[in-house]
Every structure is written in structure tokens, then in C-alpha cells.
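Minimal example, chain plus zinc ion.
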Amino acid sequence: MSAGRYSRQERFAGLGAAGQEKLSRARVAVVGLGALGTVVAGSLCRAGVGFLRLIDRDYVELSNLPRQTLFTEDDAREETPKAVAAARRLAAVNSGAALEPVVADVNAGNIERLIGDVDLALDGSDNFEIRYLLNEACHKLARPWIYSGALGAEGGTMNILPGGPCLRCLAPVVPAPGSYPTCATSGVLNMVTGVVALYEAVEAVKILTGSPAVSRSYLSVDLWRGTERRARIERNPDCPVCGRGEYEFLTRGRDTYGVSLCGQEAVQIVPGTPAELDLPALAAELSHVGAVKLTPFMLSFDGPVSFRLFPDGRAMIRKVTTVAAAKSVYAEYIGL
Ligand SMILES: [Zn+2]
């Protein structure tokens, strides 16, 4: 890249040329490319982080565009997987960055591989299941990660550093799926996801460059009221994760499972063993019963039922609300 690209950052005393050099060698994984993940990934890529693994299971929809800064209406029209669309956009912004899009559901079967070779993992997810899994995998591998979340006009973020308090110390009781408000039920403003994501990004820069200014507290903001609080979280010696090393989420079975998707009338089905589907052959068969669209990343089917199918056998079954209904669509049209 041309000399001087990062001159404004190098002149900033907290970073300097040495800090910029560290960023160019840094490797991060962004888990989830929604409102938080796209802003974090965009900020770090522009700032010169050398390698970004961009992980998301979903594809772009119009309702994403108010908050998710790396996507366009074309991406929504073409139902481009978010990881692919994000990598395309960021490659155009910074051709010097190494970008690895990963279209996958993050689960116990792949998380250690996805974060095992990075310096830092960043939470851009929208659910606690993935966050607790990330918490356990990062503790096991002694990787730092940054938690973040936003809802309405409120949000929070905290650095989870090896040896320090973990997410389970901050939130000991694991919320049951469906028991907590989500962006789909309570709404969210793009200003709050932007603010929280940029707090997350600046902490990422501090961690990656070894700055002594790394935050040791939990930060929460309420932009509507205009308040900001910092709370010191203590390590819980009885914490199952960082106290006793028990990994409840990481050791769960890997059978085929289904999850309702936040904000959509849809259920995702993930096969226990990843498949290698012949999507063109399946498309030819399905074209007798409904409308089929095939891209290099995904098969879309709209007929008596509606779904999006990925080459690894993962499917988003639309217009269903229960896992059982989604599994029966999967069995009938794709085959379990
Ligand atoms: Zn803990």
C-alpha cells in the first residue's frame, strides 16, 4: 500500500508507527456480521488490521440496511451471504487486508478452528448461545475476546481477557432462548449499535497493540437518556468457566439441530455432520415444484414451502416458527 495511508493514525501518540505495524500483523475473527459486526469489521479493516475472518450464517435482507453498514440494496436483492458481501465491500476499501469470509453457523463443532489462529475474537452476534460458546472457547484457548450487545437505545461492551473475569462472571445465569428481549421484539437504533461497535473497535486496537489503556470495566450506554456508566466486574472464584474450567456449551452434542432466527419467521437447521450437497442437481429436481434460484453460495426455493440452502447442508426454513415444522420441511424437500 502507498506510503502515508495510515499517517493520521501513526501521528496519534497512543498508536505511533510501532502500533500501526502491530495492527498490520494482527489477526482477528468477527463472529456475526450484523449491526455491531459490520461496524467493527469496517473500522478495523480501515484502520489497517492485517487479517479479518468474517463469519456469518445469514444472507442480506432489506431490514438489515438501516444498521449494517457494509451492505447495499443490491446485496439484499441478490440475497448475498453477509460474509461474502462484507468481504467484497472491505476488499474494495482496503486491498491490503487479508479477508476470509466464512458462511457458517458458529457452533461447538467449529468454533475452536475459527478462533484458534487469531489474536482476538470480536462478538458481533445477536444471541447468548453464541456468546457463551465464544466465552468458553476463548477461555480454553486463552484468547481475548470482546463482548458487545445493543437493544433499543442501550448497549454494553466488555473486554474478556485471559486471567480476568469472563462473560459468565458478568452474567452467571444463562438466559433461556426466547426469555430475553431481542432486536426483533424491542427494536434497535443504528446510533447505539454504531457507538457500541466503535467502543468495541477501539478496545480491539488497544488489545492488539498491547496498550496499557485497555479497559478493565463493563461499559454501558443509554443514548436516549444520554448516560454512560462503567462498572468494575470482579472474577467469581466459583465461576464454572474461568473458575472451574467447565465448558457446558463447548461440550454439547453435535446432532442435527434447529434454531429460531432472531427477527425472522424462520428456523435454521444445521446437520450434525456437514454435508457436501450437489446444489445444481437438487435445483433441477426442485424446479418441478417451485421457483428455484441458484448462486455460487446458496440455493433459494420458493414453492409450497420456502427455504435457503447452503452447500454444507445448512438451511434456513422460512415461514415456520417451530423447529419441528422446519425439520419436517427439511426432511421432505432436502432429506435428513
Ligand atoms: Zn468467569
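The first strand starts at residue 27 and ends at 31. Residues 7-232 form a domain with the Rossmann fold fold (CATH 3.40.50.720).
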